[in-house]
Amino acid sequence: MKNMTTLKGTVTGFDFGNPHVWMYVDIRDDQGGIQKWTAGGPSPSRMANTGWSKDTLHAGDEITLVGNRSTDGTYKLRLSKVVLSNGRQLICYGNQAGA
User: Fold this and answer.
1) Which conformational region is residue 58 in: left (phi greater than 0), alpha (psi within -120 to 50 degrees), or beta?
2) Does residue 1 register a pLDDT over 60?
3) Buried b vs exposed e over 42-79: b needs ≥16 C-beta within 10 Å?
4) CB 11, CB 23: distance < 8 Å
5) Which of 6, 17, 24, 58 is a good FRET partner for 64, with 20 to 30 A between their CA atoms?
6) Considering the chain, what is the average pLDDT of its residues?
7) What is the mean pLDDT of residues 5-25?
8) Are 91 and 81 in contact (CB under 8 A)?
9) What percent of the chain is modeled with pLDDT above 90?
10) CA nearest neighbour of 17 among 53, 66, 58
11) How far apart are CA 66 and CA 56, in angstroms?
């Protein structure tokens, strides 16, 4: 969990529901192809405590994801924070110092 991955991409879906919040993001790879990533966070109530709502993200939004990539090589990320296109940073877990 010490190695952080940072990705920039376009939101294709945002599920602000229990038991975990999920977002779906298209990431352009070095060859110009699209990788379909899934990024998960804690429950909606925990994320709401750090400033999130069901209206925080919409399809087409450009965001930067920061988190821990799945070790199985799939395009999955355990979110630490998201940086919106306006520079606003939203953490996903309220107890993360320095996130």
Assistant:
1) beta
2) no
3) bebebbeebebeeebbeeebebbbbbebeeeeeeebbb
4) yes
5) 17
6) 92
7) 97
8) yes
9) 88
10) 53
11) 16
Sign of the alpha-carbon torsion through 50, 16, 79, 33: negative
The single-letter code of the amino acid at 20 is: H
Nearest to 64 by CA among 85, 33, 91: 85
Token pair belonging to 92: 């996903």
At 44-81, the pLDDT tens digits run 999 999 999 999 999 999 999 999 999 898 999 999 99
* Residue of higher predicted confidence among 57 and 1: 57
